[in-house]
Amino acid sequence: MITAIVLIHAEAAQIPEAAQALADTPGVTEVYSCAGDVDLIAIVRAQDHAEIATVVTGRINKVPGVVKTVTHIAFKSYATAEVDAGFSIGD
Predict the structure, then answer these.
(1) Are the C-beta atoms of 53 and 39 separated by less than 8 Å?
(2) How far apart are CA 19 and CA 40, in angstroms?
(3) Which CATH number is 51's domain given?
(4) How far apart are CA 53 and CA 8, in angstroms?
(5) 1 three-state secondary structure
(6) Does residue 91 belong to any structural domain of this protein?
(7) Are residues 44 and 7 in contact, defined by beta-carbon separation less than 8 angstroms?
(8) Which of 15, 50, 51, 49 is closest to 31 using CA atoms?
(9) Lowest CB count within 10 Å: 23, 28, 29, 90, which one?
């Protein structure tokens, strides 16, 4: 399973509607509204890179209100316990 983090710039007046449409998009597992450089962050999970491309370019980019996307592919997931253990030296 491949995970992609999609940073989304959206038209301000359409953020709630775009977020809901993204959440209803096949392949999108989570959507977050956030403060900062982007308006929304979508988590995409797919079997391969071709499916990621289909979800991002064929679905997310076509949602009304979405202006721009930047996609990051995740290499590895770390749970809180794993990160804490990695920084725990000599305990």
Answers:
(1) no
(2) 7
(3) 3.30.70.920
(4) 15
(5) coil
(6) no
(7) no
(8) 15
(9) 90
**Three-class secondary structure assignment of 22-89:** HHCCCCEEEEEECCCCCCEEEEEEECCHHHHHHHHHHCHHHCCCEEEEEEEECCCCCCHHHHHHHCCC
* Tens-digit pLDDT string for the chain (91 aa): 999 999 999 999 999 999 999 999 999 999 999 999 999 999 999 999 999 999 999 999 999 999 999 999 999 988 776 556 555 555 5
Output phi, psi for 32, to 5 deg. -125, 135
Q: Is residue 25 a contact partner of residue 18, using CB atoms and an 8 Å limit? A: no
Domains of the chain: total: 1
Q: What are the tokens at 3?
A: 């995970």
Domain enclosing residue 68, as ranges: 2-86
Structural tokens at position 31: 């959507």
Tell me the C-alpha distance between 86 and 1, whole Å.
24
